[in-house]
């Protein structure tokens, strides 16, 4: 990608430019968004409509989402890419290790989290902010059973985010141990430290890219009583 000549030699990258014009950043021109195009009552219904369209429009893995958490009292924020696996009437569900992971430590002291979807092919973004809750083992088992055997074994074997002082061979050793433990068993129980996390939104924002960075933004805000208010935001 073309770069503007840096004015300060200490900058390794400065104002990355459009690689077609070699002068300006890309403009968003694929759509516009009006309040009349949004579901008037329910961000879940609206998200489902956008997600379905993203699937039909060839967006690469539209279920990919950035999950952000923050540690208290430091306020230090962590973000990572995960997969949305479920959407229900309460919120957005992802699955992960909650025994040793950084996200688990953050959530233990701070139940707020956010999700950010970016669908480049449609120039759309969805942001979600809300409180989180763990799914029950019974609920998590239902999804766990859909995973390939290697992923189920891996969930048991990985001590997520721990330092591998002996390199990858240490991880592969843990995998062999788990494979031996469940040898000959087709159904593997979900680990107690692994499962679903539901982000229950207090705010959901739908973002459509526009030219000159004058994007269309609408947010649903949960009101007392559970109803949702829709507001247009300045870009």
From TrEMBL:
Entry's EC annotation: 1.4.3.5
Keyword Flavoprotein appears in the UniProt entry: yes
GO function terms (MF aspect): FMN binding; pyridoxamine phosphate oxidase activity
Pathway: Cofactor metabolism; pyridoxal 5'-phosphate salvage; pyridoxal 5'-phosphate from pyridoxamine 5'-phosphate: step 1/1; Cofactor metabolism; pyridoxal 5'-phosphate salvage; pyridoxal 5'-phosphate from pyridoxine 5'-phosphate: step 1/1
Domain (Pyridoxamine 5'-phosphate oxidase N-terminal): residue spans on this chain: 55-165
Keyword tags: Flavoprotein, FMN, Oxidoreductase
Names of the cofactor(s): FMN
Protein name from the UniProt record: pyridoxal 5'-phosphate synthase
Species name: Mollisia scopiformis (Conifer needle endophyte fungus)
Origin organism lineage: Eukaryota, Fungi, Dikarya, Ascomycota, Pezizomycotina
């Amino acid at each position: 990608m073309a770069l503007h000549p840096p004015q300060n030699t200490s900058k390794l990258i400065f104002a990355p430019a459009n690689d077609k014009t070699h002068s300006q950043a890309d403009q968003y021109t694929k759509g516009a968004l009006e309040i009349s195009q949004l579901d008037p009552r329910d961000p879940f219904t609206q998200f489902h409509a956008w997600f379905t369209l993203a699937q039909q429009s060839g967006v690469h893995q539209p279920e990919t989402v950035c999950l952000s958490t923050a540690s208290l009292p430091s306020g230090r924020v962590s973000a990572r890419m995960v997969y949305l696996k479920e959407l229900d009437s309460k919120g957005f569900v992802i699955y992960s290790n909650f025994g040793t992971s950084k996200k688990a430590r953050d959530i233990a002291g701070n139940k707020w989290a956010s999700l950010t979807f970016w669908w480049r092919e449609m120039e759309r973004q969805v942001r979600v902010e809300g409180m989180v809750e763990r799914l029950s083992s019974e609920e998590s088992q239902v999804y766990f059973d859909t995973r390939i055997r290697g992923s189920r074994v891996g969930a048991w074997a990985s001590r997520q985010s721990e330092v591998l002082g002996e390199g990858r061979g240490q991880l592969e050793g843990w995998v062999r141990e788990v494979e031996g433990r469940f040898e000959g068993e087709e159904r593997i129980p979900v680990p107690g430290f692994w499962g679903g996390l539901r982000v229950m939104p207090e705010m959901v924002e739908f973002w459509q890219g526009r030219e000159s960075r004058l994007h269309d933004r609408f947010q649903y805000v949960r009101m007392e009583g559970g109803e949702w208010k829709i507001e247009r935001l300045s870009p």
